[in-house]
């Protein structure tokens, strides 16, 4: 979170839309299909809505008793031979990882997807210190080879087309640039990466859930790559955000039933791997990481975002995200959940994100744990407005007002903007040349007679 | 029953026929309707941008204008949603709470309060698609939400089905946001326009003649897109169809 230059999400989105290839079209189509599949599979569970209520309540309960469950988790994990570390921020997290690796003289890592490690910018940190990382998740590997962050929390490379990938693989691993065959491209990547997996000194994973009662944690993948990561090397380090805790094993079923159905519309992920202590002769480390979470927990309006199980359903359903591409958000978390999480990391850098929403509300309604995302987006706008951090584009809105409601109706518009706005309007009208309404839309025409005039004439 | 007609600014200035149709329709059902002439705005543009300070003035004025009515009815889902769900920049007195609770969007007022079933005067021999706005669906629950596993219903469609000759078609993504979103349509022009273009493409694919909506603001945006693309597509408010004009 080093730079504080504002992310111009509107400009980035415009680039994604206008790049003149199929990217935006396919991005929208594929993610919409995921949303439709989610609806179909959810509709087959009669108790779906009860499950969502229950999941939301479990999360709420856990978050309001987090200290107790964290202690219980750490204690039980240690009982099973796990070495538990606590990291207050990204820096501490990365330093702990490095220390463990150095102690084992580990130079190569195989890594299974973890948003927390992305958040901590662990990859670049370790690479700068001579450690080689190989992503084991295919989408994540594609992003790694592209030098890009994941653009979606479940489908990291969903913004790329098959030709983008063919091009990339041709450059990086020497495949045929004209091949569009997913199967053979996949196989080439597997042949390229497998030896790296087999030789890795250490494996790193995240966790989807951590269970206080048993001290074990669960990683859900579709490629089985977490199992590879955890079972091949003699050292397993798991980065776990402190909000991932569930009280009991029996709670897990509720979330497993919701997670993959919400994410991809499949009944469950292909692999739901439970890790309960190290294999014989190996070491297992858990880094329980805060990195802003306890601060967020203290934010009255925004703490509910900690309930998030990272299913990505809000992204799939979001019409703005689908057209923007995830990289437009310039942050670890994109889409609706990103809009409400990112400003908790850096208010200035991400101040324009809350405006990148049509507030259609679909994100809140689709979220399996009932996070009031749209409401939080509004609340973030209130924060930004109170700190005078509204985007400059808003001034354009007033320009449109002038275009649409040319004299004498401008006065009515001024009234519309709420009487009190009268005194600020003249300043804002400086921006009339930036008429962004008219680029792709004809202007509506004013009626010859307003309703008010008609009413006075005919009804009064 | 005394009803205050809430006419949002853009309807007053751009779509007066929508307000006339709403007024006439309510009167056909014997409702006593008044139009407070001092009304301006519900505060939505400011409130949407998080500008509570400037929203408060508009909200206070709204309440002053509409305090004497049993019901407040507006032919605009998003403006009604603003009043019902977000009008909280001013102190929530008993009076303010009552006003907010009694403010209805036209379709829900016809369905839930007047409980009307017939529009014997209405005839519309066209192939239409319904656009219930996001505010209407997820804010006012005028239609079941596709995100929720709940019994399916659509109040707008139930009313329109009573119109003679009407042919209601379902598009591929009936409850996808069209990209209007208030000031979003200008602050986020590239995405907003693309969403509008996709919506219009969906109508064209289904050979729609008219798009009918309880929310004229979404239609203003969609119409702008359709006209720019020179599409042969018309946009009317549900009140105009149910009242049989004026068009
Ligand atoms: S906010 Fe909700 S829908 Fe979005 S990723 Fe998190 S759990 Fe899934």
TrEMBL record, chain A:
The keyword 4Fe-4S applies. Residues 299-320 form the 4Fe-4S ferredoxin-type domain. GO terms for molecular function: 4 iron, 4 sulfur cluster binding; metal ion binding. It comes from the Bacteria. GO terms for biological process: lactate metabolic process. Pfam families: Fer4_8 (PF13183), LUD_dom (PF02589), LutB_C (PF11870). PROSITE patterns: 4FE4S_FER_1, 4FE4S_FER_2. Keywords: 4Fe-4S, Electron transport, Iron, Iron-sulfur, Metal-binding, Repeat, Transport. The keyword Protein biosynthesis does not apply. This is Lactate utilization protein.
UniProtKB/TrEMBL annotation, chain B:
This is (Fe-S)-binding protein. Pfam families: CCG. GO terms for cellular component: cytosol. One of its GO terms (molecular function) is oxidoreductase activity. Residues 3-83, 129-221 form the Cysteine-rich domain. It comes from Rhizosphaericola mali. It comes from the Bacteria. InterPro entries: Cys_rich_dom.
């Amino acid at each position: 979170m080093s730079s504080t230059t504002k992310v111009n999400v509107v400009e980035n989105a415009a680039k994604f839309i206008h790049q003149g290839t199929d990217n935006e079209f396919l991005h929208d189509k594929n993610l919409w299909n995921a949303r439709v599949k989610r609806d179909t599979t959810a509709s087959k569970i009669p108790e779906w809505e009860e499950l969502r209520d229950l999941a939301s309540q479990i999360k709420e309960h856990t978050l309001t008793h987090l200290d107790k469950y964290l202690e219980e988790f750490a204690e039980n994990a240690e009982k099973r031979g796990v070495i538990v570390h606590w990291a207050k921020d990204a820096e501490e997290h990365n330093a702990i990882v490095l220390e463990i690796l150095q102690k084992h003289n580990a130079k190569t890592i195989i890594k299974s997807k973890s948003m927390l490690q992305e958040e901590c910018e662990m990859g670049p940190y370790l690479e700068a210190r001579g450690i080689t990382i190989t992503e084991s998740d295919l989408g994540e590997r594609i992003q790694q080879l592209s030098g890009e962050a994941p653009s979606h929390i479940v489908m990291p490379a969903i913004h790329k087309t098959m030709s983008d990938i063919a091009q990339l693989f041709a450059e990086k691993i020497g495949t045929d640039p004209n091949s569009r065959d997913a199967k053979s491209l996949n196989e080439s990547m597997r042949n390229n990466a497998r030896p790296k997996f087999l030789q890795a000194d250490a494996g790193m994973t995240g966790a989807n859930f951590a269970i206080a009662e048993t001290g074990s944690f669960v990683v859900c993948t579709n490629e089985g790559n977490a199992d590879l990561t955890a079972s091949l090397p003699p050292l397993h380090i798991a980065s776990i955000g402190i909000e991932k805790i569930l009280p009991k094993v029996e709670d897990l079923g509720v979330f497993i039933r919701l997670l993959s159905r919400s994410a991809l519309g499949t009944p469950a992920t292909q692999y739901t791997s439970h890790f309960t202590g190290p294999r014989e002769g190996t070491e297992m480390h858990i880094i329980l990481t805060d990195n802003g979470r306890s601060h967020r927990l203290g934010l009255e309006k925004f703490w509910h975002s900690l309930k998030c199980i990272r299913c990505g359903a809000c992204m799939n359903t979001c019409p703005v995200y689908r057209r923007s591409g995830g990289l437009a958000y310039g942050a670890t978390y994109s889409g609706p959940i990103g809009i409400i999480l990112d400003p908790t990391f850096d208010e200035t850098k991400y101040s324009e994100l809350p405006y990148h929403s049509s507030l259609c509300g679909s994100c809140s309604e689709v979220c399996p744990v009932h996070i009031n995302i749209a409401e939080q987006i509004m609340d973030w706008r209130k924060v930004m407005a109170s700190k005078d951090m509204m985007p400059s584009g808003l001034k354009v809105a007033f320009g449109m007002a002038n275009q649409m409601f040319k004299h004498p109706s401008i006065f009515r518009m001024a009234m519309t903007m709420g009487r009190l706005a009268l005194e600020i309007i003249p300043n804002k009208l400086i921006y009339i040349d930036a008429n962004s309404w008219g680029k792709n839309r004809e202007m509506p025409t004013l009626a010859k007679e307003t309703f008010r005039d008609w009413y006075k004439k005919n009804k009064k | 029953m005394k009803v205050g007609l809430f006419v949002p600014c853009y309807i007053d200035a751009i779509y007066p026929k929508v307000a006339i149709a709403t007024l006439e329709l309510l009167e056909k059902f014997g409702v006593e309707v008044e139009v407070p002439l001092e009304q301006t705005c519900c505060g939505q543009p400011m409130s949407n941008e998080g500008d509570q300070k400037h929203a408060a003035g508009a909200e206070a004025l709204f309440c002053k204008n509409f305090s004497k009515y049993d019901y407040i009815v507006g032919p605009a889902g998003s403006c009604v949603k603003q009043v019902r769900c977000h009008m909280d920049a001013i102190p929530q007195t008993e009076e303010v709470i009552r006003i907010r609770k009694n403010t209805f969007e036209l379709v829900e007022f016809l369905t839930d309060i007047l409980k009307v079933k017939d529009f014997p005067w209405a005839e519309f021999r066209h192939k239409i698609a319904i656009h219930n706005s996001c505010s209407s669906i997820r804010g006012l629950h005028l239609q079941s939400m596709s995100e929720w596993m709940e019994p399916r219903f659509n109040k707008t469609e139930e009313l329109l089905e009573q119109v003679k000759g009407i042919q209601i078609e379902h598009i591929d993504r009936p409850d996808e946001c069209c990209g209007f979103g208030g000031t979003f349509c200008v602050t986020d022009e590239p995405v907003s326009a693309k969403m509008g273009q996709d919506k219009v493409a969906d109508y064209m694919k289904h050979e729609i003649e008219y798009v009918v909506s309880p929310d004229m603001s979404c239609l203003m945006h969609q119409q702008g897109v359709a006209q720019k693309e020179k599409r042969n597509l018309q946009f009317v408010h549900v009140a105009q169809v149910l009242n049989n004009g004026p068009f």
